[in-house]
Amino acid sequence: MEAGSKNEFAENQTGDGSMEEKHKGGCFCGAVELEVTGPPIVQAYCHCGDCRAWSGTPVTSATLWPADAVQVTKGEDHILSYSRTGETIRKSCKTCGGALVAAIPAAGLVDVFGGVLKGFHHEATAHVYYAQRVLDIRDGLPKFRDMPAEGGGSGEFVEE
Ligand SMILES: [Zn+2]
Ligand SMILES: [Zn+2]
Q1: What ranges do the domains of the chain cover?
Q2: Does residue 3 surpass a pLDDT of 60?
Q3: Strand ranges for 3-54 from DSSP E
Q4: What CA–CA distance (Å, rounded) separates 40 from 18?
Q5: How far is C-alpha 150 from the chain's CA centre?
Q6: Strands 70-74 and 79-82: what pairing?
Q7: 47 C-alpha vs ligand 2 centroid, how far in Å?
Q8: Is 34 in a helix, a strand, or coil?
Q9: Ligand 2: centre distance to CA 125 (Å)
């Protein structure tokens, strides 16, 4: 119910000076474009081996949004979906290979990679899966061994 009313609000507000924050983004070649509405639920740096292998970078910046806040506005048919675990569906552009999002359907969340949204200022509050890291970061933020307890993890911290 809440999801429905949220979409309705977004449609009603499109293009007329919406009160709700919107960010646009897309892939490297521009074939796929997407838009997110409202603020992310949480922002973090992810050190997990899966993100690393998929993205080719030691650390990824994750922004988690409710699934219904993320809309593909162009090039849906250019999206390649891959799931190794069955829990996370990683999506990229078929044409340029650019990483886009990782959907987590069971949690009703979509992780939009931090660099996908144009002009979005990334403000992470924690590091997750820090025990799997290949790069040390000393920024004073909390370092979760895996995930916070409310995200289904141990909630344990690792020293910097
Ligand atoms: Zn592309
Ligand atoms: Zn990860």
Answers
A1: 2-151
A2: no
A3: 22-26, 33-37, 42-46
A4: 17
A5: 17
A6: unpaired
A7: 6
A8: strand
A9: 15
Q: How far is the CA of 96 from the centre of ligand 1 (A)?
A: 4
**H/E segment holding residue 90:** strand 89-93
CA of 60 to the centre of ligand 2 (A): 7
pLDDT digits (tens, 9 = 90+) for 10-47: 444 444 455 688 999 999 999 999 999 999 999 999 99
| Chain segment 59-114, per-residue pLDDT in tens | 999 999 999 999 999 999 999 999 999 999 999 999 999 999 999 999 999 999 98
- Residues 24, 118: Cα–Cα separation, whole Å: 6
Cross-sheet strand order for the sheet of 60-66: 79-82, 89-93, 99-104, 109-113, 60-66, 42-46, 126-128
Q: Residue 61: nearest ligand to its CA? A: 2
Distance in angstroms (rounded) separating the CA atoms of residues 49 and 129: 9
**Burial profile 73-96: b = 16 or more Cβ within 10 angstroms, e = fewer:** eebeebbeeeeeeeebbbbbbbee
The architecture of the domain spanning 2-151 is Alpha-Beta Complex (3.90)
Per-residue pLDDT for 118 more than 70? yes
